[in-house]
């Protein structure tokens, strides 16, 4: 063929129009002698252009023709141009699968498997595939026969003769026939073993569910029993040898490649367990040791090879156990946790291309369907199917899933499976990653019928279907609960109240009847509020179910919605601010404290939708707001009412941020720096209480004296307050100090100071909807027997003459928090020599501190409390760590400036930096202190009242565990970890505190 230089031939242009990406190379291939008789036939070019990859199809066709016996070449070409069924099948396969093109080049006569076009050929079953493998007598011949059968399935698939579900079923039937053939080869090779045992091969996973991929591990379980008169001790090893041989026949790589790996890791005990067990051994394991995921896996168990009676006995025996799995404690949480773990283990650079395991992928569909099967299959045998799509149809038919949702899920699943099939078919490799290469994406898109702009169309369709799966994954489980209490369209199936209750119980709701009542109240009606809540509730229910107390979450949401449902900004917040709804769900279901704070003033929910709303406000800003509010108020009680309202709002902000950061969200994982979490809470609550005291002080003074009190007055924070380490349930430990103004008598000044203290305490404890702030001044000189407030000179005289070692130790955490700043600094200057004595502590003082600590351990531990679990006074708890750090501060603070701090963690870090304690010991103490502090915070968040030990109520202790990062069902692990961490801290404390010189 000659052309004018500089001009392209007409063939080149035609090739370009027919979808060839390298027309020059294709033109050269068409000029080869092997295709001389058909190169000008327009039918061939049209057929090539209809394939997924015309260039690949032509290259593979040339290889096939050249490999064919010369006497048979013309027959192949003649049949190709005259028989459309063969042409479409053969070229369709060659354009979609490089691997099957390679197979045909090695075994050119196999193209004849595509010639027949009979009814049985269009829809073969296991029997037809067994006939196709009948000539296989060794692993190599089995591989060749398997690929020949696979060639026919691929041809029907790419030509659209069968849909994606039928393709998957045929692949599973071919796998069944292959396993039978491999077992027959193994038996023939070892007839002695075959005579000793009965063996059944149980297909699991996609093979068991009749939904296999082109290239996938074939999951199996083996069951073995002795033949008559044979001892079990001989039969089981024989069955094990047969099973292992059968696995090698399928899995090993030979000159003809491999078939697929046979994976037996779903067996009891996984790879650590015996390969073959008797039926009774299987049952004993499942009845005693099996985890939830193992029953989920058994949904798809199906006998496929070996002794059919034994296989049927196995399925009949385990089936009742499968349908009892949903009764297990934490069933839904276990299944969802397994799904999250799968996603978390995907490498970050692959998660967006992961078709099977990524968010919105195939596994989301399968997990959702299996979860619903296990919940409702207990009472509805129509759901007992191993096939995802069949089970989905049954769920829709029974009203367990909305029909529209089921149809969308079905469509998305079929599309994603078709993508998976075509990706694997290309090179017959096990992969679930969407390719990145443009040519691969183009071939994939064209194979799915996208021809105008294959890459763009493919990406758009893929993202759309993945988005549908992500959206429906939760909705599929929760939406029917709303339908159960709402009016449906005529003919639409719905969950019965009983089935809805069953589903709610499976989700962890303790009172499903009340939950249904709340759902009805939230979703009924035609108002805009009801419409928005119907949209949100399926997702919210999922978040509630992920908590320790779903009932409280749903009830709290109803209360907030009842209070705010008619305010437009609230509905907009939930509808438009994606994070707000999830944040609200987390806060409402994490315990009592945060919901109580919110429900006293529900408008604070706006904090959850503000991007900066969870950030704590500093003391300066809080004091400005509080003092401005006091200045505007009419009277002291009204002023402090506003101040306490600010405190309640800011407490809610702090608790909400703590819960959300501890739990994590879908967009942001849980905070990993637990010390930072504790410091953030301690600083926020301490700053808030300081601002509250400033407001109460200003209100008390303003009510009686106007702008100026007759005496200068300061509040000194003590204990955790001074250390910026307050928890949610901590009192405000303080000292009060005053200094008479010039011209004011000592008596008048003292009376004014005491009146202010009494009024502050009264105002902060008035019964209102806001939480009180309890002021504790028991650390003052002479304790409860001493005056509530002293002058600076009185403090100086007392400390110079009467101060005990424990009082100096208590002053380590003294810091001004409110009132006259200059007076506060004067108090600090007064006490510094006491808390950081020159030359450190003497031996007598050290002995006294140790004696006091030992006495406190023996006398102050509550009766009946477990000393290994008491966060404050128990072994390795707060007291142990703080006394160890404080002893170092008093001994070395005079020479180490870093130790002159009221904060425990800061002082511990300074001691480590100064070489006073090894790094490992410092880390041990810090870890225990942070954990014990978080336990106390968790108890307050969960119970709504303070506590120093883990709750005994199962739901409450589970909620504490969730806050601390433990999944449901792992309370024992939490307590073991606490004991381990604090035991190590106690060992360090005993060496550093009691053994210190």
Could you walk me through the main structural features you see in this protein, from its secondary elements to its overall organization?
The N terminus is likely disordered. The strands form two sheets. Strands 1, 2, 3, 4 and 5 form a five-stranded mixed sheet that branches. Helix content is 61%, strand content 5%. It is built from 44 helices and ten strands. With 997 residues, it is mainly α. Helix 4 packs parallel to helix 7. The radius of gyration is 38 Å and the shape is elongated.
Kindly list the characteristics that best describe this protein.
single chain; 997 residues; 5-stranded mixed β-sheet; 44 helices
How would you sum up this structure in a few lines?
61% of the residues lie in helices and 5% in strands.
Label the overall shape. elongated
Distance between the termini: 102 Å
The SS-based structural class is mainly alpha
Mean pLDDT: 90
Low-pLDDT residue spans: 1-7, 487-491
Task: State which percent range the strand residues make up.
Answer: 5-15%
Q: Helicity level, as a percent range?
A: 55-70%
**What's the count of strands?**
10
Largest sheet: 5 strands, mixed
> What is the CA-atom radius of gyration, in angstroms?
38 Å
Give the helix tally. Answer: 44
Strand-helix topology:
Layout lengths: L9 H8 L5 H8 L11 H8 L4 H14 L2 H13 L1 H13 L1 H9 L12 H4 L3 H7 L6 H20 L5 H26 L1 H6 E7 L1 H4 L9 E9 L5 H20 L10 E2 L12 E2 L1 H10 L3 H7 L3 E5 L1 H15 L8 H14 L17 H15 L11 H10 L5 H25 L10 H10 L6 H30 L13 H10 L5 H12 L4 H18 L4 H15 L3 H9 L1 H11 L4 H7 L19 H14 L3 H28 L10 H32 L5 E7 L1 H4 L9 E9 L5 H19 L10 E2 L12 E3 H10 L3 H6 L4 E5 L1 H15 L7 H17 L18 H15 L11 H10 L5 H25 L10 H11 L6 H24 L3
